[in-house]
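Cross-check.
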Amino acid sequence: MTIMKKYLVEERSLISWRWPFAAWTRMFWLLPWLIWPITRNKRRQNVLREPIERGALALIRMGSGPSQHYVLQWNPNWRMYNLLGGKMDNGRGDANDFSQTLRRELCEEIGAHKLQFRVVRELRHIILRQYSHREERSKNYDFAVFEVELDLLQRSLDGSGELILATPAEIERLTTRSGQPISLTTRRILQALGELPAA
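Predicted model, tokenized:
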């Protein structure tokens, strides 16, 4: 056997000895990429199986163009300003009706201010998954957003009370001009409606 033939025989034997281990090594490195889609889909299915909390929100505009403002209300549970509205409660007569939820909430929230309102139309449903500070966990939400007109004098809101007029710039930075926090939900809803630039 020549030196070249001997070298080729030894090289083939070495390759045949290493090949199964090389294949297993490649499979080992590919394993996370094979498992990740499965685990991701499982997490997504778990999220979809979670209950969805339903609610109705009011989009109330005041003014137009550069002077346009949005009516927000102080939420004592969140300790920040938010769009008017609330969650659906069939135990209080909502009967799975988002518009009824909105009317009930508006009567409760602005009735004390003796303000008249008119529900103009339903704009759209917005599905969000966000963190609940009260329950300290992420939840799924289905918000029906309605355009609402409010009999309100702009001078009656000075920016420091329960109801305020907030500019788009204030909502984008999540802070009123007096330094009070505005909820992230408000900004996400207005972005989804095209009222604010998308993030």
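Residues 4-9, 39-47 have pLDDT under 50 and may be disordered. The two ends are 73 Å apart (CA to CA). Passed to J.P. for a second look.
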